[in-house]
């Protein structure tokens, strides 16, 4: 292969050409688990590195981890992550990550191996047509039938993944064609920006804001994904509008900022007369777009703003909506509002700030709880003060991670990873691998439930082999806590909700080459965390927690 410069001529086998396109789109790491169907991709990565165009090969212990690492890379870097999975079970093991990426709007490309075309239908190893399986959870899914189709087909996949609304794309290549050669030009990567928003809709929404007495702004993942975090922060600060954040929108308004009223979420959403939701779906996390209306009160008007037209809610009753490039939306709205009399929401904001202060005071008791067994909140009471402003915090769990959503307020955008609305467990180790690579100088903290750990803890071996230190903090209540409580509420009993008591998961981590310890005394959590951060290795702090200290929730996601 001669070059990976965009627009330059390239020739070589199909794996080299595929790597050339990935590099042209900014990919630096290939996540994979070794499989013969995709050997040409590995050779392409090695040759790229030999030509001073590095393509890191990061091999894992389960294909789901490779795919989740690619998904998290797309979230963190806003460049599509790349997972290369061998044919058959390699691809099907990655489907959950593809689905998570589709729901979360994460840009990623999965390249699958495929049984050879010249043997198709004869029963060769792992012969299955992947495309119908992955098409429902991807933006694009296709087979590239010949080596000559790889340059254009890979470019199409990366372009789809990085264009609004972002998401996963999938291609596979027959094994015999993967080893075949072709030539052509490396296509140029585009910007992937959204459409220009409708100016009339901007003016209408600005009018709704100007007339509102009690507005609330909700900022979601796509604000970060669309690179609109600066425009969003400018909008909030200039207009002094109360804001709530979720997903990767967390940190757009920094934790501790007086305009961030996430701790007063209930009062804000029940008392608002206008809720403007930007970059997140009106799903179960947001009451399906119905705010207020309790105790005979009026429901709020709702505006939905999305990065693409197909993301605007079709089920909610909307006062208005607009879609397009979110920076243009925020700046256009700000200019339109400022052309009129400046709204004064100071009284409303002050009341929500009082609610935030009261909630923080109540939280302090649990964050310092001396309970035995340990209350999960105490872990966050010790962890949060130890987090640097650029720490990347990853949630992989149910009940235990719900407490993280309440107590961890990132101080910068792009520093929070959770499964998003798909609610998939097992993403944590892949996300931790991706975060350590993407943010080599930052703290990386993986919050694990003991249930979630069972999906992927073996990939601590990957962290060790590739020298990727991560602090893992486990809330170990020996149960599927998110299910145990609701089942008891419904039936008065629970089944299939218990795990082995006090399992020494830290010993598993030690056996794989990392380090860790079990903590049962709340007064020892802080010192254990200090040892974890200082260790320089994958380190698990396994905290035995109270199974009866369940997170108080208002919805079960249905």
Short description:
The chain is α/β, with parallel strands linked by helices. Helix content is 38%, strand content 17%.
Description:
It contains 22 helices and 19 strands. The model has no long low-confidence stretch (mean pLDDT 94). Helix 1 crosses helix 2 (39-50). 38% of the residues lie in helices and 17% in strands.
Strand content: 15-25%
Compute the number of helices: 22
- Average pLDDT over all residues: 94
Q: Helix coverage percent of residues?
A: 25-40%
How would you describe the shape? globular
Which structural class do you get from the secondary structure elements?
A: alpha/beta
Major β-sheet strand ordering: 3-2-4-5-7-6
Largest sheet: 6 strands, parallel
The separation of the N and C termini measures: 52 Å
Which regions contain 5 or more consecutive residues with pLDDT less than 50? Answer: none
* DSSP strand count: 19
Radius of gyration: 24 Å
Pfam family, one: TPP_enzyme_N
InterPro entries: DHS-like_NAD/FAD-binding_dom, THDP-binding, Thiamin_PyroP_enz_cen_dom, Thiamin_PyroP_enz_TPP-bd_dom, TPP-bd_CS, TPP_enz, TPP_enzyme_TPP-bd
Cofactor: Mg(2+); thiamine diphosphate
Keywords: Metal-binding, Thiamine pyrophosphate
What characteristics describe this protein?
22 helices, globular, Thiamin_PyroP_enz_TPP-bd_dom, 19 strands, THDP-binding, metal-binding, single chain, 6-stranded parallel beta sheet, 17% strand, alpha/beta, DHS-like_NAD/FAD-binding_dom, 558 residues
